[in-house]
Amino acid sequence: MVSESGISFEDFVSCDDGVMTAGTLSEDEIIDSVAQKNDINDLRYIEDVNSTCAPWVSIKEARTALNTLRNFIEQTSNSEEEFSALYRLDNAIDREQPNYLKQKKITDFF
Prior knowledge:
This protein is mainly alpha-helical. Among the domains are: 24-53; 59-98. It is built from five helices and no strands. The protein has helices at 2-5, 9-13, 27-52, 59-76, 80-95. α4 (59-76) runs antiparallel to α5. The longest helix has 26 residues, at 27-52. The N and C termini lie far apart (99 Å). The mean pLDDT is 76.
């Protein structure tokens, strides 16, 4: 194949002899290259953090979603297992209420 294209084997093998594969950097060049890599890595980290954050869901939105799911389960299934899972989710939402763990006074009931 080399002889058909008109290029000798020696030219083919030595075509990249002049390409620089290693070199010596000055201290300033090393510092600049490290600083540029850190800047790029910082930007990638910030982009990763921003892209992986889910939007905040309020307690009201969670309750609405759970009620929608409860309606769906009631329409499609009567499995006790699914209703107990909904009950556990309902309790988890209750625990997130600000006054859930606050001890009540006896006068609050009158």
